[in-house]
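hey so i finally got around to running both of the ones u sent me last week. sorry it took forever, my laptop kept dying halfway thru and i had to restart like 3 times lol. anyway pasting them below in the order u listed, first the sequence line then the structure token line for each. didnt double check formatting much so if smth looks off just lmk and ill redo it

first one:
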Amino acid sequence: MRTLALLTALLGLSPALSTAQNGIATLLPTSLSFPGQLLGTTSASKTAVLTNSGTGALAINSIVSSGNFASSHNCPISPSTLAVGAKCTITATFKPSVPSGISGEISIFDNAIGSPHLVNLSGIGLTAISLSPATLAFGTISAGTTSAAKTVTLTNNLSTALTIGFSASGDYAAVGGGTTPCGTSLAGKAKQLGRKARARL
């Protein structure tokens, strides 16, 4: 015991600061996924809960988000602490800047082992209209013949209806087809099909 006390004194340590008495940061969930969101608009919020499941106070230095994600929280920031067993809520939103899958994270910097603790974030940025697939390949077609039709799905990602029209250039033709053929309007959040065929004259 004397040896332990001497080492503690020499190293400037205090038994009250032992790891066993530090807070433990527990996040639930550890990831948040946002559905497709129009570019430049802000999503509905999603939340994660941070719990101090340790035997000592949890000191949180900062909580920051990255990329196209923003966050807010009601967690106490040092020198205030999160008491043993206490919880706080972290809220995230998504505002995409590019039409693709986007990832990010919320980082919680604290005095618990494993800091920073992360909430992984993901979302998809959408344009007002999307096409799937974006390109079609017809291969080699004999002169004077018409290829088999290929289908493109047009999706209106807006909440309001769109007036639409479509055409093809050169040796290609585009017509409405399929179970929901493209017409002159497309309701909000709806999909329609357009058939596109190639003819070599």
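and the second one:
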Amino acid sequence: MIVRVCQNCNKDFLSSVHNTKFCSRECHGVSYRKAHPRVNKDTCPSRSRIFESGQILNCAVCNRQFRARSNSAGTCSKACWTKQNLKRMKSLRTSRAKSKTCPVCGQTFVSNYGIAKCCSVNCSHIYQYRHFRVLVLQKYGNKCCRCGFSDERALQVDHVNGDGWKRRQENRGYSVAYYRDEVLPDTEGHFQLLCANCNWIKRVENKEHPRLRGERRLIENNGEHDEEKNFENTPRFGRENRQPQNRFGSH
């Protein structure tokens, strides 16, 4: 414990903290009020108008007279305040608006945000797809790994194991997130870059085509048909197999 002198009442007091200046909260409050006196509303130069209790003002939105409760009141209700705030935000956006050119469709548009690059959501998806396609082509050498064809218009990302149709069923088709999260970070060699001709030749040779997938299944099952995946046993819903129905929906 250290003996100290209060800076407000000049009394001695014991304190365990080395930077204590006051003996109690009352002394601290009195000292704070002396150092920070309250500002008089009538003499403060920062206030342009003096507020009187119950003063009648005109609303800035609907121009209707109302009895104000404070000096900062400018609207008569919360709805008028919301309209005024929206109008102020709209003026701020128009002041920050810039004219830009969409890199996808080439149209000129006005953007209120600095990070906007495209004019619409569709153009934004196309722009992201092109961006990640360039990254994928650069990762795999910008050429076909079989014949060396280098025209990027005919280059395709191929699944080495031929399980692309399974991945499409799991991921419900390809998207920007699929190439960003699976193709780019792949380090185990599940993907390769082929041209269109080599990709179709590989599909036929390895029986990856949907029409040849049945023959491949027969070879894997030693010529035995898979009853669960045999499409001949599934019911057909063509016109020739429809049964007549009456007005009440029964056969």
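quick thing i noticed on the 2nd:
Confidence is low (pLDDT under 50) at residues 41-51, 227-241.
anyway thats it, ttyl
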